[in-house]
Amino acid sequence: MSHPTEIQQTAEPTQRQVIDVLFRDRAVRAYTFTTLGALAMIFMVMFMNGSDLGGVLVVVFGAAALVLRWTATPPFLLLIIAYFLVFPFGIPDLGSENPYEIRETHFRVADVVLVMAILVYLRAQYRVFGFVHQIVPFENVVRRKGDVPTRRPPGHIRSDEIAWLIGIAGAIVIVGQIVWWLVNSLDFVPMEDFPFRWTDKSSLVSAYRRAPVPGEFRPGQNRFFLIIGGMFFGTLLLRLAFGYWQLRTMNAAEGAMILTDTSWAESHRERVRVEKWRIWGRQRAEEEAKRAEVRAKREEREREARRTKRRN
């Protein structure tokens, strides 16, 4: 058997070495079982939803990606899950649309468990890739022969990483459910003094059947405008808050580095122009020196020829 640490110095580890790291190293084994447990939870929720075929596909491809290091599989699994959530039996349903379906899907236990399992799976899977495949890209765009991928040493795993991983996933799910409830509980009415109001769910069916009045949007359009506006203003506020917090926690050396980098970025065009003039001046001086040297040699030959002519 190979030792789990041997994979750190190996450019192309064998499948035996990968399996040894996944199941013999105690720290990495915790991530392996976390990934498999998340896949099991996804299968359970999809099976309860009637998507037994989708659940089997997720488990099979997820387990294969874990062992065989298929780095492109997690996004593919998200597409499979999304498809079988819309069409549980794998066949498009041409039935009538339920106008209450989307607005009443917040804080459902199955959805909360499924989303949390997906988040845990993605985070754990990519951390496993960091142990057995690669954690940072190569310095060059094209990998050079003999380059060893940088992998995270298992000894750097903290004892509370799994707990933090699950806790952060749960917090993200709760925040997402609150945002989804808020988006479905507000109407965007730009024609009124205050552009938002609480949704009247009793008139939801009639809103689908009749033509909207001027300044009124359908539920899907409301969600679109609210999500776009929330993303824009939320990103702006978070950028301002975290930017100010970063400035407050920055020491003098880090501040000088940021200012230097900003100065280089702002003066890039001027520095390029000055550098071009400097290169041109150096090339011109070299050309003038060469011309002077050629002229001096020619004059020396002419003087030598005149001396020879006088002697004769």
Automatic annotation (TrEMBL):
Keywords: Membrane, Transmembrane, Transmembrane helix. Residues 284-312 are annotated as: Disordered. It comes from the Bacteria. Signal peptide: none annotated. Residues 284-305 have a biased composition (Basic and acidic residues). The chain crosses the membrane at residues 30-47, 53-70, 77-95, 107-124, 162-183, 224-242. This is Uncharacterized protein.
